[in-house]
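Give me C-alpha cells for this 457-residue protein.
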Amino acid sequence: MLRYIKFTLLLLSLPLVLTGQDASKTHTLTLPEVISLALDRNLLLERSGIQVQLRENEVESEKADFRPNLTASAGILTRYAADGRDPVWDDGSFTDSASGSLTSSVTLYRGDEQKASLEQAMSSLEASRKDLDRSQQQILFQSVARYLEAILNLKAIDIQTEELATRLENLERIDFDYQNGIRILADVQRQKALVADSERRVAAANRAYENSLYLLKDLLLLPPRDEVVLDLDDSDWLEPKNIGEPSIQESLARVFDRPDLVAQQFRLTAAEQNIRIAESGKKLTLSANAGLRTSYSSRSPIGNLGEQYFKNSPDISGGLSVSVPIFDRRRTETSIVRARLQQDQEELDLQDLEQVAETDLRLAILNFNTAKLQLKASQEQLSSAEIALEAEQARYDAGAATLLDVTTLQSTRLDAAVSVEESRFDLFVNRLDIAFQDGTIESFLLNQLNTNIPGLE
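Here you go.
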C-alpha cells in the first residue's frame, strides 16, 4: 500500500517538474522595446542581410576577374625500366625525374563583358541593400501596428468590463424593485439579457487580445508560451494632440525616393548591363599568358638536380592569343533578345511600383484625414450619449421612462466609447502609414516617441 502511495505521488509531481523545466517568462514591453526586438530578431531581415552578403561576394568575384591568375605546379617521378634486350628483372634500372612550372594568364579584352559584369554586380548589390532598408521599414510598421492592435484590444476589455459591471449593478437594482413590486418581470429578463450580452463581449475582447499577443510574439520570435505585458506608462505619443500633421507635398515628392523604388531602379540598371554582357559575345577576346618551366632527369648528363632544375633547364614563355566568334548557332542573338526582354520587364515593374506607391500614399492621406473626422465625431457622440444617458436614467428612476429607453442609450454610449478608442488608434496608425509610404517611418518614430531606440538610430 505504501508503495502504491509513493508511485501515485510521483505521477502527480511529474507534471510540476516538467513545467518547471519549461517555465514561461514574462516580458514587459514598451513600444521602443518592441521596435528594438523586431529589428534584432526578425527572419525577414536576416534573409535580406544574407542576400546583401551574397551580392557583396559577387562584386568581389567580378573585381577579381580583372586580375591575372597564377598557378604553380611541381612533380617528381621514379621510373624502373630495362634496355629491352634482357628481362626487366635482370638488367632494369631506376630513373628519377622532376618538373615544375609557374603559369599566369589574364584577359586583356573581352568586349564590354568584364566591365558590364562588374557594374551589374554592383547594381544588384545596391538593389539588395535598398531591399534590406525597405524590409526594415516593413518590420517597423508591422511591429508598431501589432503593438497598437494589442493595446486597442486591451482598451476594449476595460470598456466592456466596465459596462458589464454597470449592467450587473443595474440588474441588482431592477431585481430588488421587482421583488418589491415596483418593476415587472420583463424588466428583469431584459436586463439579464444585457448582462449576458456584456459577458459575451468581454469574452470576445479577451480572445481578440490574446490573439493579438500571439501575433506580436510571432513577429518578435518570442516563445508562444511566454507572457507579454504591455507597458503604457509613457504613451503620450498616442495622444491625438501629439500626432503631427504630414506635409502632403513633401510626402508626394519623397515617395519616388523610397528604398524599394530605388532598388527597382538599380535592378533596371543591372538589366541594362546584362544587354552589354550579351552583346560582348560578338566581339573578340584578347588574352595574355606567360609561363616558367623547368625539369630534371637523372639520365641527363648536363648536371645534377640543382644545376638542371635551376640553371640549365628553365625556360620562359609568353604570348598573346586572340579569339574571334564566327558562328555560335545564334546563341549570342538569343541572349541579346532575352536580355532586352528582361530590361522591358524591369521597366514595367518600375512603372507599376511607382503607380502603386503614389496610390498607396494618397490612400494613406485619405485615411488619415478620415480618421481625424471620425475621432471628432466619436468624441461628440460619446459626450452627447453620456449626457442623454444620465438624464434618461434619472427619468427612469422617477418612473417617467422605460427600461428600453435606458438600455438603448447605454448601447449607444458603449458603441461611442469603443469608437473613440478605435478612432484614436486609427489616427496614429494612418499617420504611421503615411510615413511608411513616403519612406520616412524611421524619422517619424524617432520624433514621435522622442527616445533612443536601439537598432533604429
